[in-house]
Amino acid sequence: MIHEVDEALNRLLDESGFAASGVEVVFDAPTRDWAARRSAPTVCVFLHDIREDGSRRGTGGGEVYDADGLVVARRAPARWFDLTYLVTAWASRSQDEHRLLAQVLTTVTQADTMPARLLTGTLAELGLAVGLDLVGGDPDAPAASDVWSALGGELRPSLEVRVRAPLRGPHLAAAPPVTEGLVVRAAPEADPRDPEPARRLRYEGVGDAGAEGFGAPRERPATPARRRRRGGRQP
């Protein structure tokens, strides 16, 4: 699912005009060594935080059908995850970097969800809306300064883009469909003049007479003593 979100973001930014203008979109970590090797205008989209949204856990599932409309599997409900990307622009001049960031900002804020035409793989198969927004004011999200400190680089202008995407649940194979109907056959009634006595089926593990189980006779409860009539004599 993560690589499918990467592909959707890459397509989204390419459609905004980066591919036509020769700006490269990469998903590398913007470390100091990476920045030293960069030569062309680049937009870096670095995934630095993945968290599950427990409030969106579902209890229902779905069914998977084949080309003939038969149920071949049952699908567990999807689980939702927040993927946070640190987006930075790299160019020879600060003005160009700001222009690239402004273009990313405009693209991300145009819609609250990722366009369906950009989704691939399981994201397209599920048919669920993939959220897209900017991280702001979230106390649980890591600070940008902490991310830059962990990367060993210098703090620079950046955007934090969050994608809320579903992770497809596992598929459980369904039993094959029934192709034959139930067959019932009637046996002829036993002749009462037949000298062979009727036989009773016995099952393994069933005790003899008096034991609990199939075919075992039960003891008849004892008859309670007659109550003494009120005012009468005891015989």
TrEMBL record:
<dbReference type="InterPro" id="IPR025351">
    <property type="entry name" value="Pvc16_N"/>
</dbReference>
<protein>
    <submittedName>
        <fullName>DUF4255 domain-containing protein</fullName>
    </submittedName>
</protein>
<dbReference type="Pfam" id="PF14065">
    <property type="entry name" value="Pvc16_N"/>
</dbReference>
<feature type="compositionally biased region" description="Basic and acidic residues">
    <location>
        <begin position="188"/>
        <end position="205"/>
    </location>
</feature>
<feature type="region of interest" description="Disordered">
    <location>
        <begin position="185"/>
        <end position="235"/>
    </location>
</feature>
<feature type="domain" description="Pvc16 N-terminal">
    <location>
        <begin position="4"/>
        <end position="179"/>
    </location>
</feature>
<feature type="compositionally biased region" description="Basic residues">
    <location>
        <begin position="225"/>
        <end position="235"/>
    </location>
</feature>
